[in-house]
Design a protein that fits this description.
alpha+beta; six-stranded antiparallel beta sheet; homotetramer
């Protein structure tokens, strides 16, 4: 997709303020590490609190940052005075997530007035490079009047 | 599906011990509230830490308990000396999750030697009754030698 | 879900007329075998034209009737002067589809003004009984003005 | 993913012979238009037989070629004496498929001994260019002994 254009001059401030209100992201320790029109990255550092029974990142933690990255990527293109909700998503867990840091890269594939479709890819990063940990497809819904 | 039979006499102890090692479930405050062959429920009480920007449960929190319920429902039917990993899932978020308590009900639809397919439904519960908050389909993989 | 109510007195005629215009269903040999509010079944008899390389029903044939069953189940609850399109779906193929007849049972899980979520289960039927061949989740969109 | 390597010198002949046995692809009029390690394209020309009620390609036709493209992309990397089955997939329909020709581009994202994950994107092509009609994620299973 070439050059999606924000429809609200305050898009960046709205996205950052909404993310700051996501208490769950703070509870996980996630940070928004990149914001551009149609593209948001969210980064999560490994802590023991985020693990499943083998000591890897729990699929729920991996999915949570993939979901927020997709949702805010969509929101960068939403008009003012609207909110974003996830309607549905699907995620494939490709490799064990046991790296020091995860980054979820949410990208808009198809913007729309009501529904926006995003892809979100999660990479595990350590000193040896990047591993493709997960890939997902997300449907986000734009809700007029439900201010984020 | 009629009466799935565990293949390991210690299935319940293994499932409970593995869940106790999921630090992420503890970090969310989730509890395993029902365990039977092919069926596991996980319960999560609302706290401010679990919310997204509108004050509802974050889709990531909802999905995380749906995933653990599906995974442990599958594991009740796995042989000894095996582990469980989520291969992929898809979830539809049906209604805002703003109730006092969520319960995820993971059920085995199709057991298999390598792949087990589960459905997981999440309900929001408060004094007025139950709301169907989410429904998902999960593929779990049985890993011989990767003891849970 | 209890007793979904059609919003258009001509719902049955509209659904049947729209199905009759789906040339692709005719090309496969599929028939609408049950129609009720929030529920549509579509039946497909095995012919050599529908097979993949092992002689089973091709996943595409199985999915096609699951999709039409879900779409028309949703449409039974749509207002007059609207059309239905599939926004997305996910399907798990549970068992080889090698029976004489497939029936896809589409059921509305969550009706909505814009988005309706359906489950569609496909069963293979022969003289020995029913096999659960596939299960899927579908998001249908209601399009005002796009008359079906 | 860089340079996936086939594990069977006869991979191309096996893939082409298996596709030739998919009677369903022939029934739709689909052709395999590109075959390389980890990548298969399938092309489908519009005919009235393939339409839904608005005259677009039926989602089932679009999904069917996306599924075969993903399955054969996976099979290019499978060892000899194995077969391929679709375990599950999810597809988002992004734009109406009303172009003269569809091409589904199946690509391996993550090869594996048992499970291979593919992305399949479908484009509608006419004199004005390409439209991104659908995107999907597919899990394929490699079955030793089930010769394709």
């Amino acid at each position: 997709m070439t050059a999606p254009a924000p429809r609200d001059s305050k898009w960046r401030a709205r996205v950052e303020a909404s993310f700051a209100r996501q208490a769950f992201m703070r509870h996980l320790g996630a940070e928004m590490s990149h914001v551009a029109p149609g593209a948001v990255d969210i980064t999560l550092r490994m802590t023991p609190d985020l693990t499943q029974q083998h000591g890897f990142f729990h699929a729920g933690a991996t999915s949570s940052i993939a979901d927020s990255a997709a949702g805010y990527a969509a929101m960068t293109l939403f008009p003012a005075e609207t909110g974003v909700l996830t309607s549905e998503y699907k995620i494939n867990l490709l490799n064990p997530a046991r790296q020091a840091t995860l980054v979820a890269r949410g990208r808009v594939i198809k913007p729309g007035r009501t529904l926006t479709i995003c892809q979100s890819d999660v990479y595990g990063i350590d000193e040896t490079g990047e591993v493709h940990v997960a890939t997902g497809l997300f449907t986000l819904i734009c809700l007029p009047g439900m201010k984020d």
